[in-house]
Amino acid sequence: MQLGPDDAAAAVERHPCPQCDVPAGSACRTRAGKTAAKYHTARFILVPALRDELTVPVPADRGPGKKWTQCPEVAAPAPETNGAPIRIGYARCSTATQELQSQLDALAAAHCTRVFSEKISTRIKIRPELEKALTLAHEIKIAAPDQPVILTVHEMKRLARNAAELMTLSAQLQGGGVQLELLSGPLTGIYDPHGMGSMLFAVLAVAAQLDRDYIREKTLEGQQAAAARGNHGGRPKVIDEDDVLFARALRDKGTPMPDIVKKLTIKTGKNAGRHPSVASLYRALADNDA
């Protein structure tokens, strides 16, 4: 947007100067209290149309060097939005066996301008497509500060599963002025990162952490129940208990270890049908003796 000198000055004077503390409605002044020859950079960069300008001249009625006097305050115009909000969609599933299409269909129905998707676990800290979505949203806000930008997801768990990740994402959205939209779940809707909308992230952080703790608790209970039934998980043993008893009997008779392993056969696993190594036999005997 092109502004003439008078229009640029009027736009700048809607804001107080953070450098010389001049109130809105007046030109910048020097330490002696006289009108400055130009506006201070810290003031006119507050006007998006002037951020790339190096100087904004003071209008003729001010007169550089004149004694500064209080002028009527210039009312700031109401912010204008540039049309409909821009929606940036993000879809994610954890494994290759899960499907993304239902999320993509929901994001398409929400009129997302661009959709980023990936198959990756939330336990992985760096999610490239999510980073791209956030970067694009922030770039749009920088280029058009008055343009509403919304990060749209099908449900909250597609973004994060613990409090730390969710609070980090909250800080990124708040810092960039990007809104968050949830298409499903009990908190369906659009949330602004400022004001009451910021409370959502604190609530979701607690809920996400509780959900994570619940999953961990159930996993440990399942492991304990399996252990009580004799299933301890992990890789199958190369040498089972019967082979260990047979090997100990041969060892007690003085049979060399290399000869003992030739009499044993691995029964399960990818090496089934082969003889175990001498080292494996030593470990099996040591574990059994312990």
From TrEMBL:
It comes from the Bacteria. One of its GO terms (molecular function) is DNA strand exchange activity. Gene3D superfamilies: Resolvase, N-terminal catalytic domain. CDD domains: SR_ResInv (cd03768). InterPro entries: Phage_Znf_bind_put (IPR056911), Resolv_N (IPR006119), Resolvase-like_N_sf (IPR036162), SSR_resolvase (IPR050639). Belongs to the site-specific recombinase resolvase family. This is Resolvase. It comes from Prauserella muralis.
